[in-house]
Amino acid sequence: MTTEPEAPSRLRMRRVERLRREIALLERMDGRLWRKAALASVIGVVFIALLLMAVAAKLQYFMYHPLAVAMVALAVAALVWWLGRYTLWVPVILVVLLLAILFEGDVGGWDFGGDGGKAKVKPDRQGKLNAALSRRRTALAKLERRA
Q1: How far apart are CA 82 and CA 84, in angstroms?
Q2: Is residue 135 in some structural domain?
Q3: What pTM was estimated for this model as a whole?
Q4: Cα 77 from Cα 52, distance rounded (Å)
Q5: pLDDT computed for residue 113 by the predictor
Q6: In sequence order, what are the residues at sequence separation of 6 or more whose Cβ sits closer than 8 angstroms to the Cβ of residue 103?
Q7: How far is CA 118 from CA 107, 113, 114, 140, in A?
Q8: What is the CA radius of gyration of the chain?
Q9: Alpha-carbon gap, residue 126 to 64, rounded angstroms
Q10: In which element (H, E) is residue 17 found?
C-alpha cells in the first residue's frame, strides 16, 4: 500500500499564508520596537550624562576639589546603572533627586530646604557686631580725649 501525499487542503493553505503574513508583520514590528528602544536609551543615557555633568559642576562650585567631584559623579552614575538593571522606578527617583540637587540653593535658584530663618540671623548678628564695635570705639575715643 502506497500512500500518496494528499494535496493540502484549501483551508490549510489559507492558514499557512495567514501565519506567514502575521510573522512578517510581527518581525517588522519587532524591528520598529528595537529602534524605538535603542533611540530612547541613547536619549536617556545622554540626558543622565548631562545631568551628572551639571551636578558635578555644582559640586565643583561648592567643593573646589576635582577628584572628589569626579568620584561622586562616577559613584552616582554607577548607582543609577546598577539599579537600572533591576528596577526602573529607582533610577527615575534618583534622576529626580539629581535634578533637585542641581536646582536647589544659591546656584540653581530653587530652594527646597527651609533654612529656619538662618538667613535672617546672620544680618542680625552682623548688626549686633557693628553696634558693639561702634560703642566700644566711641568709648575708646572718649577715654583717649580725656587722657
Answers
A1: 5
A2: yes
A3: 0.43
A4: 7
A5: 53
A6: 109, 110
A7: 18, 12, 9, 33
A8: 35
A9: 27
A10: helix 10-63
How confident is the model over 112-136, as pLDDT tens digits?
Answer: 455 555 555 556 778 888 888 888 8
Q: Exposure of 136 by Cβ count < 10 A (0-12 exposed, 13-18 middle, 19+ buried)?
A: exposed
Structural domains of the chain, count: 2
Whose cell is 526602573? That residue is: 88
**One domain, residues 37 and 96:** yes
For 79-118, b/e burial (b = at least 16 CB within 10 A) is ebeebeeeeeeebeebbeebeebbeeeeeeeeeeeeeeee
What pLDDT score does 3 carry?
Answer: 61
- Residue 143 clears pLDDT 80, i.e. is over it: yes
Partners of 104 in beta bridges: 110
pLDDT at 23 over 80: yes
Give a yes or no: residue 134 inside a domain. Answer: yes
